[in-house]
């Protein structure tokens, strides 16, 4: 069913404070499910980004945060996506990534909650289900050596822009860039998906000191991180759960956020833009 047929059943963004908390509570269900599967299959994972920051600074969600992020080294990610085929609670959740979901254009996975809806702005035309979600990020090798690293990161940027083109051709404010994205969107998605898979596999033949999510839309220095942060983990309280995170959380959070214990100014405490959404039992 398209957005046009659903809109009268949906709430329009932004999220109210009460609904933001309701979204967080739904995501906590999914975090618990990820943790359950990973413990069952001895898969090593870590909270990343604002989720790791929330665990340390707030013992749970950053109050204004509307998403949750999990990171795994590529080998662990592959074990996780395979485990989801048989052990994910399919009555409540579904898993998406480029190999599992036709038309999906992100280089990382998502766990989504059935019977919910959460549409990011500019993505109403994307041809897949859009329930409330958490992100599952695979981390791949970044080659050692400054030149090799720069070339690798440029390659990552090109792949990311091609994948984003289906959204960028409709949403970018620059008409010239909208045209560029329109042209890029004509590249067959299957071709891009296969190239991404080969690129990751080739890069992971030899372990490197640093890793990154190939398609993460952030400056390279924030996309990257030390491999040991994902190999050496510990457990931390997060809301009513105990989740895995970086053992050396201080080094990780300084790398990502600088002075991570200081709250940002109120004007910077923002959730992601959501166009339409539906909570459970609505």
UniProtKB/TrEMBL annotation:
Protein name listed in UniProt: LicD family protein
Pfam families for the chain: LicD
InterPro entries: LicD/FKTN/FKRP_NTP_transf, LPS_cholinephosphotransferase
Residue ranges constituting the LicD/FKTN/FKRP nucleotidyltransferase domain according to the UniProt record: 38-258
Domain of life: Bacteria
GO biological process, one term: glycoprotein metabolic process
